[in-house]
Amino acid sequence: MSYPPPRYFAEGGATSAAFRPASAGPDLLIGDRSRVGYLATGASTDGQFGLYRWDMSAEPNGPGAHFHRTMSESFYVLDGTVSLYNGEKWLAATAGDFLHVPPGGVHAFGNESGAPASMLVLFTPGAPREAYFEELADIVAKGRRLSAEEWRELQARHDQYEA
After folding, report:
1. Is 28-162 CATH 2.60.120.10?
2. Tens of pLDDT along 7-40?
């Protein structure tokens, strides 16, 4: 394993850091079950990664088993108990637990604990996941019911495939 090729070629360093205070509210609400903070998007990291804070209410929620063809997804539990599916079994993950899923790896997450839970979700490379999250929020907000074909089409546009 070696370092990747250089991407920055100026003689001196640049003042280019981005700060997001803990007091910043969520960027997106998905119904009353999930609050999502866009900590670093694929656009803001030049496609290197996307990092999101996912706060879940006490009500059961989360996607079914799926996989991605173009990106990995990782989960780091901050608080509470998050159910993480590793393609084989469900794990009751608590603060400090971490799950990395490479491209093609079947996974899912949810909150079945009956108490709020929070985690960080990392996508690499950085894909425009915000568009997917925002479409989900819109579907929930409008009370829309998608057909199986509409779900498959939506998910395929966002590199998400049912397992």
Report:
1. yes
2. 999 999 999 999 999 999 999 999 999 999 999 9
Q: Where do the structural domains in the chain lie, given as residue ranges? A: 28-162
Number of CB atoms found within 10 A of residue 145's CB: 7
Give CA–CA dist 74/81, Å, rounded.
16
Cα 131 from chain centre: 12
- Is the preceding peptide bond at 125 cis, omega within 30 degrees of 0? yes
Count of alpha carbons within 13 Å of 99, Cβ hemisphere only? 25
Q: What b-and-e string marks burial along 29-65, b requiring 16 or more CB atoms within 10 Å of the CB? A: ebeebbbbbbbbbbebeeeebbbbbbbbbeeebbeee
pLDDT of residue 131: 95
Straight-line distance from the first to the last Cα atom of the chain, in angstroms, rounded to the nearest whole number: 31
- Tell me which residue of 110, 121, 116, 115 sits closest to 83, measured CA to CA: 110
